[in-house]
Amino acid sequence: MRAIGLDIHRDFCEVAIAEGGRVRAAGRVGTAPAEIEAFAGGLGPGDTVTLEATGNALAIARLIEPHARVVLANPKATRAATRLRAKTDRIDARTLAQLLASGFLPEVWTGDEATHALRRRVGRRVHLVRQRTKAKNQVHAVLLRTLAGRPPVSDVFGTRGRAWLERLVLPDDERETLEACLRTVDFLDTEVAALDRALAPLVLASPDMRRLLTLPGVSATTAATLLGVIGDIARFPTPGRLVAYVGLDPRVSQSGNDPAHHGRISKQGASEARHVLVEAAWVATRTAGPLRAFAQRLAARRGWNIAIVAVARKLTVIAWHMLTRGEDYAFARPILVRAKLREIELRAGAPRVKGRSIGVAPTAAERELERELERELAVAAEVAYERLVKDWVPSRKQVREPQAGRASHDAERQPARQGSAPTLRFGSASLPHQGDYAPDSGQRQDGT
Question: What is the pLDDT of residue 429?
Fold first, then answer.
């Protein structure tokens, strides 16, 4: 079995082969499809090829996969594992081959073509939205430089806002900048809307995306982004793995006997999913339900910024359970979910039909009554969560007996943390452990 490392570039790939405990350079291979297929044709059935997950890595991997097993490596984790002073293409290829042969290569999940197509669409939408934000910021910069003051409307890019911009007296160069930015915003709005129309049928056809829509604050864009990032939920055995994958887990620093220190979130992994989760958390905190009660309770102690990140993490955990069990959100509001689905259907090109399919349209009073009843159920769930938190009593953890060879001062520090003697249960009886401290006297019960 050979472990083959490819350090890929735009025009060529540097090749290194690890076999029999030795690593050797094997020259270069062009990245043209014909050259990659010729290279793959010379591979054996037991060979494994690895390359870092960069821009053209997936296309090269698809050409090699019919001939040999392909492993995509995490570039960031690879650099952290090696930390070499010298960096050349030949050294990088040898490093990949050595890590693969030794079993220490940080592997990346590839996924199927449908998942990658969804990721590319979501990534392009994120890029367009960022460009639109930059153009809007330039408009605000023009207003700031010319002392135009605050706009009298909430949306300066709406109809009334643009009419106000037309009436402003600006220098010629600033007027040119303003009009160019407005044209850019209009163009990007059209492109984002086209992408939303392309994503709408995918959301309606996916049971998992429709299930995510039952969460408060989760829109079609959020559901598509999350599912594109997650891919197969089975690759995350626990919700904590998914939380760490989207970078919402806290940084941990611990050494020796010192307790672990938890800092800010790691912000590792897919930033697109983390951003849409935070946006969904802001909406969820304004919707009646347990998530709003959780956010208000945490914000009273730590502030709203930390509370919003905590809600985003909780949304991630809930999404993992929903996708793993195949269940909808337990506190979903059917009217809001139906409104989301109807908006997605219209975006996908469904005809607008007034009334219900049976021909009887609900009156405004009936719709308002239904919304009020659902709102009352959501408030009741929120109150139930608040009572649960208020009445919750943490269970007392038992302190384990110090093992042989451990420092004696660890055992001496246990009474200060314990508060009462731990017990060992034998059937229906509970007896104090013989080697523990008495809670009142501070002496051991065996007389020492």
Answer: 38
Beta-carbon contacts of 218 under 8 Å, excluding residues fewer than 6 positions away, are: 212, 226, 280, 315
CA gap 284, 163 in Å, rounded: 34
Torsion of CA 45, 46, 47, 50, to 10 degrees: 110
Mean pLDDT of 20-25: 88
Beta bridge partners of 444: 437
- Domain of residue 135: give its range: 113-205
Q: Which residue has the tokens 């044209």?
A: 183
Q: Residues 30, 139: one domain?
A: no
- Number of domains making up the chain: 3
Are both 217 and 348 inside the same structural domain? yes
Q: Tell me: the pLDDT tens digits for 83-96?
A: 667 788 888 888 89
- Residue 424 CB neighbour total at 10 angstroms: 13
- What is the distance in angstroms between the CA of the first residue and the CA of the last residue of the chain? 64
Backbone angles phi, psi at 140, to 5 degrees: -65, -35
Q: Determine the Cα–Cα distance for residues 297 and 304; give it in Å rounded to an integer.
A: 10
| pTM (two decimals) | 0.76
So what's the pLDDT on residue 379? 79
Predicted confidence (pLDDT) at residue 304 exceeds the cutoff of 90: yes
